[in-house]
Design brief:
Radius of gyration of chain B: 18 Å
Structural class of chain A: alpha/beta
Distance between the termini of chain A: 48 Å
Shape of chain B: globular
Mean pLDDT of chain A: 94
Shape of chain A: globular
Low-confidence stretches of chain A: none
Largest interface: A-B, 27 and 35 residues
Oligomer: heterodimer
Number of domains of chain B: 1
Distance between the termini of chain B: 21 Å
Largest sheet of chain B: 3 strands, parallel
Number of domains of chain A: 2
Order of helices and strands of chain B: HEEHEEHHEHEHEHEEHH
Helix content of chain A: 10-25%
Chain lengths: ~450, ~220
């Protein structure tokens, strides 16, 4: 059976496990209908011109894993930012692991989507926020909405600073020969509040995994949200990440995406503005090789005056890897005095590597500052010679140049231990140990 | 010394191992060892240093980190342990004082946004750190004001010993007021056509290169 049919038919089985009387069920039903009509995107869709899911969809994915598997913390410690204390919301094959998690209801809510969706005390919040910013039109988002039952639920009330970063971790064990998971995260950050979140998907086996994740983030007035995505999964893991950010006035929301692993990764990142003088930051570092594929598909919708957005994506592609950067900035007529900047800088290390970079600016206001810059190049030979002349071997010199190339984005990481981790991953990716801590 | 286009920078690049050039004939001997087949970093590990006429900017890598990497890679290649961090700091402090370099400067990205003079001074700082056996300074004096010239020359003089050699490529006698050369060689059309002592530089300052060119063509 095709995956699409399998999903549609398994919806009935899914309905047996959930409350079909709730309003939420109507949301699910119409979402499923949308997916049924549209199906999985194909290369015929303009937005998926450079990314094909065909090969992946041929796997016989298990949609509902049988039961939860236990993992000991020591087995997976290295995937956490274990040097510091964090809140943890951990899932194994899509199922919450209370054993590995460290949640809280003390002043802030860091817990489970499944409780939020079913417990009466969260009903108001769910009614107000769940599926409010996520697309009703996008077929993959709809697919996730139809089946949404588990993920992280984070609610930081007004004027609170989350006392430590929150790690959201999705492990897949490989107990199923091929597994599809659809996590659903909801993050609400109240007025004047501040939170740092790290999200990671990690497969612990070589069995194929397809993750179709949806995250909705609401940044209220003057809220500060820093969201970091570590994508360093093994070569059989596929990730479609759909993230929607809604911002109120004077808020700062930033999403940093570090894409080093996986087979296919698609990041649909959407920012919507609902207030003035707010700032959106979208940063990314992509370092891939072999036949890996990473696609960044971003949208910043400037709807209000005096807002700023900054996009800075660095990509290094070797072997036969392919990258896509499609960055859309939409400035509505009302959004005067918008500052919108977009950069996509890419290095191709092999003749067979490809990057498709496409900036899209649609501007309907007349008093704005918008710019975009796209570069594709190789490593500077003169710089390499200069470094070699000082005794740095070519491989290390290349690594140093690539590190330097990504540095502007690394410098933006606000959690020092995470910064260290990312630089270590980069050094490992580049296969070097440099004379100083990268 | 030598007129424009004589091949001074080309010769230095070849000695340093720039892969844009192919050596079709001859050898490059360093302490009786032919280094002409070695990679640039291997030559550097054996003590060859080239101060670039146009030092390259490397954003994102600080001067200190660059130096640490260069020194430790060189030590590694020569079978030595990495230099301990405290010793590294001590050496960096000494050498930066020698070249009157502000410490803040060392945490800046290598050559990025440096003035012409700062870049050149930074080259000599690196030379001081690496202590090469053979240093080639390719027009290190160009773009320097009088004070910077004095500092750089002073640095070079202090680094000069009976265990190393320094080749200074320059167009101006002015530098040689500060650095007194043991020998002056004149390169023309890719060949050394005249050699002498410091007085040859003075003669060139006065008479230019025409008389040498004429001698060659005669």
């Amino acid at each position: 059976m095709e995956l699409k049919e399998k999903l549609i038919s398994s919806f009935m089985a899914f309905e047996e496990r959930i409350d079909v009387q709730s309003e939420l069920h109507d949301v699910r039903t119409s979402a499923l209908k949308n997916f049924e009509t549209k199906g999985f995107p194909s290369k015929k869709d303009e937005a998926w011109k450079y990314t094909s899911l065909n090969a992946i969809l041929k796997n016989d994915f298990t949609v509902f894993p049988k039961k939860d598997s236990a993992i000991e913390f020591n087995q997976v410690k290295k995937y956490f930012i274990h040097e510091i204390d964090t809140y943890k919301v951990v899932f194994i094959d899509g199922i919450f692991s209370s054993h590995l998690s460290s949640t809280t209801h003390d002043g802030i809510d860091v817990c489970l989507m499944s409780s939020a969706l079913t417990k009466p005390k969260y009903k108001m919040v769910i009614d107000n926020y769940f599926n409010q910013i996520a697309s009703k039109d996008d077929s993959l988002t709809s697919l996730n909405t139809a089946f949404a039952c588990e993920g992280a639920y984070i609610n930081i009330p007004k004027s609170k600073v989350a006392d430590k970063p929150i790690e959201i971790m999705y492990f897949s064990t490989g107990n199923e020969s091929a597994l599809m998971v659809q996590p659903r995260n909801l993050v609400i950050v109240g007025e004047n509040s501040h939170v740092q979140i790290i999200e990671r998907h990690q497969s612990l086996s070589e069995n194929p995994v397809l993750t179709n994740s949806v995250t909705e983030i609401f940044a209220q007035k003057r809220a500060i949200v820093d969201y970091y995505k570590i994508q360093n999964d093994n070569h059989q893991a596929n990730l479609i990440d759909n993230t929607y950010v809604s911002q109120q006035k004077e808020s700062h929301a930033s999403v940093h995406t570090f894409s080093f692993g996986g087979n296919l990764t698609r990041n649909n990142l959407n920012f919507y503005h609902y207030g003035e003088r707010l700032t959106s930051t979208l940063n990314g570092i992509t370092i891939i090789g072999d036949k890996q594929h990473v696609d960044h598909y971003t949208l910043v919708n400037h709807a209000e005056p005096n807002c700023e957005s900054f996009q800075d994506y660095k990509g290094i592609f070797s072997d036969r890897s392919t990258g896509v950067f499609n960055g859309k900035v939409y400035v509505e007529k009302e959004a005067q005095k918008t500052n919108a900047f977009q950069k996509s800088n890419n290095i191709l290390l092999s003749d067979k590597a490809t990057i498709n970079a496409k900036p899209q600016l649609e501007i309907f206001a007349d008093d704005v500052k918008c710019s975009h810059g796209c570069t594709v190049g190789q490593l500077d030979e003169t710089a390499l010679f200069y470094m070699q002349q000082r005794g740095i071997p070519k491989k290390e010199a290349k690594a140093l140049l690539m590190y330097a190339f990504s540095n502007a984005v690394i410098e933006n990481i606000k959690i020092p231990e995470l910064k260290q981790r990312i630089t270590n991953i980069i050094a490992m990716k580049l296969g070097v140990k440099l004379g100083f801590d990268l | 010394m030598g007129p424009n286009g004589a091949g001074k920078s080309t010769l230095s690049a070849i000695i340093a191992g720039n892969e844009n050039y192919e050596v079709t004939q001859g050898e490059i001997l360093l302490e009786n060892e032919d280094i002409s087949e070695l990679a640039p970093e291997e030559r550097a590990h054996k003590g060859v240093f080239l101060s670039f006429q146009y030092p390259v900017e490397i954003p994102g890598v600080s001067v200190t980190n660059f130096m640490k990497t260069a020194i430790n890679e060189t030590r590694k290649a020569n079978g030595q342990e990495e230099m301990p961090a405290n010793q590294m700091l001590k050496v960096i402090r000494e050498k930066s004082e020698l070249l009157e370099i502000d410490r803040k400067f060392l945490s800046r990205s290598l050559n990025e946004g440096f003035s012409g003079g700062e870049k050149k001074r930074n080259e000599i700082f690196q030379m001081a750190m690496l202590e090469p056996k053979l240093a080639i300074l390719d027009e290190t004096d160009s773009g320097l004001d009088i004070d910077a010239l004095r500092i750089v020359a002073n640095g070079v003089n202090k680094l000069k010993s009976d265990k190393n050699a320094i080749i200074v490529i320059t167009h101006y006698q002015r530098l040689l007021d500060y650095i007194v050369p043991d020998f002056v060689h004149v390169l023309y059309n890719g060949k050394i056509v005249k050699s002498g002592d410091a007085s040859l530089a003075l003669e060139l300052e006065e008479k230019g290169y025409d008389w040498i060119k004429q001698e060659q063509e005669a």
